[in-house]
Amino acid sequence: MLSRKGSKLLVLLVATALCLSLLAAVVSAEKVKLKYTYWGSPLEKKAQEEMLEDFMKAYPHIEVQPIYIPSDYVTKITAMLAAGDPPDVGQLGEGQVLAWAEEGVVLDITPFMEQDPEVSFDSRLPMTWYMYDGGTKTVGTNLAVEIMMMFYNKDIFDEAEVPYPPAKADEWTWDEFVETAIALTKDRNGRRPGEPGFDPNNIDTYGVAFGTWWAPILPFVWSNGGDWFDEEGRETLINKPESVEALQKLHDLIYKYHVAPTPTQMQTFPAFNILLQTRKVAMVIDGQWSLLDLAQSGFNLGCAPLPKLKEPACLELGAPNVIFSATKHPQEAWLLYKWSTSASSVMPLIQAGLWMPLQIEYYTDPEKMNEWLTEGVHPPEYKEAAIDYALEYGRRAPSYYMRNWEEITQAISQGLSNFWLGKEDAQTAADKVAETLKPILQGRYDR
Amino acid sequence: MALPAILGFLLWNLLPMLASLVISFTEWSVVSRPKFVGIANFSRMFNHDPLIWKSLYVTAYYTFLSVPLVIISAFLVATLLNQNVRGLPVFRTIFYLPSVVPAVANAVLWLWLFNPDFGLLNTILTNIGFQKSLWIYDEKTVIPSLALMSVWGMGNTMIIFLAGLQGVPRQLYEAAEIDGANFIQRWLYITLPMVSSVIFFNLVMGLIGTFQVFSQAYVMTEGGPNNASLFMVYYLFRNAFQYGRMGYACAIAWTLFVIVLVFTIIVFKTSPAWVYYEGERR
Question: Do residue A182 and residue A291 come from a single domain?
Fold first, then answer.
């Protein structure tokens, strides 16, 4: 039994606690609370947190809780959704976003755009929009623009007395590229491919290295006048002559000319920036994002567009930022969405080389360009090799519109694996892939 | 006293199991509302998905290669470690050590060993005059390679065998020795029957565990090359978390459950013929 005095004290305590919590509720009711989820490297985390802090300074009535999810992102977001506690704004994978939009989990932003001219189809690069519902709705654009391109170590070129690749997209032909790669490749005894006594099993410096996932490969198929899917996204063209020829030419770099490492050799190689820095490889085909690491690796970095087979082609890709439908504060979420995708608020990441801006003016207006091009990060030829290349030839990756994209990429990488290992010819492998793709191809979100 | 365990089983095992059984009859992408589709997931599996057959074959192939390999080598090593040699604890530790290494670290280590160009295994092969192998990068050798790798993690099985071997009464050996039985006869007529129940246990546990193989495919091969290591649990994982087909993934899980159950029952049913229990009447 509590004494009389004790029970009085208890009542008082409870009352105080109640008042305090009421007060807290009133105070917090004034501030709109939003949750923002994202992934990325530690550097991205820091930059995103700064971006959110600036946002809260600009809009003092909004409080944003950043939630950093470096791994298993989709699984965690799924769990948050299932638990009824989803984020308001956040990044989402290309493989999920449009399926989720159709389910109504992610908002269509066209109503916001009608009210707010600050974001419009004309202001951002045209290939960065994720369209669905037959092309009438959009969840928005990438968080940032990325393209596949070429990076190289200038010192290796200088020593081999090979001229740098042209920075203009339509100037570098495939044959010239192969010649360059041969001239840069060197075995243990200093012999080049084609010279008598060249030892392809003991190569000290490879001319070029590339991954065999879809993004480094597809631009060459495009460049050769081919594609992997038809206009409607229902039939595959991967085994058509244009595509097979492009695959074969990339394959020849590894097994015919011996200027590129095999996939099994690549397994043991360190990251591309280390390969270039240690002169194991002279050129690499990789995403623009790798500029961040390359620029910090302390070698004489150069960059170029991808060489062309017939016509120049540039593959653009990137994961979108979206507004989740469950948000209780759509207007504030829209403000945050706008802020997080505007180049000026994520400038540190753009200047560091990780991202490219979404807004067209940053590609056309020299003054705006100077805001993001950074000495010591972006090589002098970057303007032509990346900016003009993206603006003129940039084409959205199939991840922007193909249904079942994750399954499609699996089918392609599994079906081509024997080909890249040098155990199957291009036509056989492509025919097999075409067969497995048949039931998986279910059309496009934007048609 | 058993209440926490029972509650734990009900809440964390039985309930999710029943939930997944229900989900296996729906089309559900987790973010959407589940839609009841009857047995569509199961009929899709049997009629429209060649990959599920491939994954079933690959998983069974791996299991029937790996389980006997692990049991035989663990038994042999346990027999050796049951001898009276100097530095016994050291040897026991060495052979158990790989089981303590986390699965992913293990996988990374073996990626190096298996590398066709710079790997240790190929260096050994070429030095003793054999052809290089592509190991996990070849459709034909990927499963045998992974089975070979599984022997490396036999520590737990080995410890159980060791305990079983030490439980064999000494007087049996002494009596046999007096009767003139040599080493092989003692092993065949005393050791083997006396530890047959341990073999049985390890076989059942091995089957159940190996059918659920996942991390090798997830970390090392990504199911490749050409889906040659697309284990069932890995395919299930892809469906559930990459393709957004939770219903189908649950249907695969239950199919796997039934398969493992069938094999376990077979082992149990045949066990009276080859497992000897002390105190059992014949």
Answer: yes
Does residue A294 share a domain with residue A330? no
A417 in the same domain as A398: yes
> Is A99 in contact with A443 (CB distance < 8 Å)?
no
Q: B219 CB near a chain A CB, below 8 Å?
A: no
| Residue A396: pLDDT over 80 | yes
pLDDT confidence bin for A82, thresholds 50/70/90: confident
Searching chain A, which residue's CA lies closest to the CA of residue B226?
A414
Burial class (CB in 10 A: 0-12, 13-18, 19+), B179: exposed
Band (pLDDT 50/70/90 cuts) for residue A364 is very high
Structural domain boundaries, residue A110: 31-145+318-341
Q: How far is A104 from chain B (nearest CA, A)?
A: 8
pLDDT tens digits for A307-335? 999 999 999 999 999 999 999 999 999 99
Per the CB < 8 Å rule, is A263 touching B48? Answer: no
Residues A92 and A181 in one domain: no
- Taking the C-alpha atoms of residue A194 and residue A419, their distance in angstroms, rounded to an integer, is 23
pLDDT over 70 at B219, yes or no: yes
Total number of domains constituting chain A? 2
Interface contact flag, A410 B30, Cβ < 8 Å: no
Least confident of A45-54, A205-214, A232-241, A249-258: A45-54
Looking at the structure, tell me whether residues A188 and A336 fall in a common domain.
no
Q: Give the whole-angstrom CA distance, residue A268 versus residue A274.
A: 12
Q: Is residue A446 part of a domain?
A: no
pLDDT at position A2, please?
Answer: 46
Q: Identify the residue whose tokens are 């149990």.
A: B268
Q: Is residue A346 part of a domain?
A: no
Torsion angle defined by CA atoms of residues A315, A321, A326 and A329, in that order, rounded to the nearest 10 degrees: -140
C-alpha–C-alpha distance, residues A325 and A92, integer Å: 13
ipTM: 0.84
What is the pLDDT averaged over residues A220-231?
A: 97
Ordered by where they begin, the domains of chain B are 37-83+156-274 (1.10.3720.10)
From chain A, pick out residues whose CB is under 8 angstroms from the CB of B47.
none
Q: What CATH number is associated with residue A92? A: 3.40.190.10
- Tell me which residue in B31, B48, B138 faces A100 most closely, judged by beta carbons: B31
Q: What is the mean pLDDT of residues A174-200?
A: 95
A294 and A329 in a single domain? The answer is: no
Over 70: is that where the pLDDT of B28 sits? yes
Backbone angles phi, psi at A367, to 5 degrees: -65, -45
> Is B31 touching A (CB cutoff 8 A)?
yes
Contact A268/B243, CB-based, under 8 Å? no
Q: Give the closest of A265, A406, A415 to B117, CB-based.
A: A265
Cross-chain CB nearest to B31 (options A78, A95, A264): A78
B183 touches chain A (CB under 8 A): no
Residue A313 sits in the same domain as residue A191: yes
In whole angstroms, give the CA distance from residue A389 to residue A405.
26
Q: Are residues A272 and A404 in the same domain?
A: yes
| Residue contact B243–A404, C-beta within 8 A | yes
| pLDDT tens per residue across span A205-225 | 999 999 999 999 999 999 999
For residues A180 and B90, what is the distance between their CA atoms, to the nearest angstrom?
A: 57
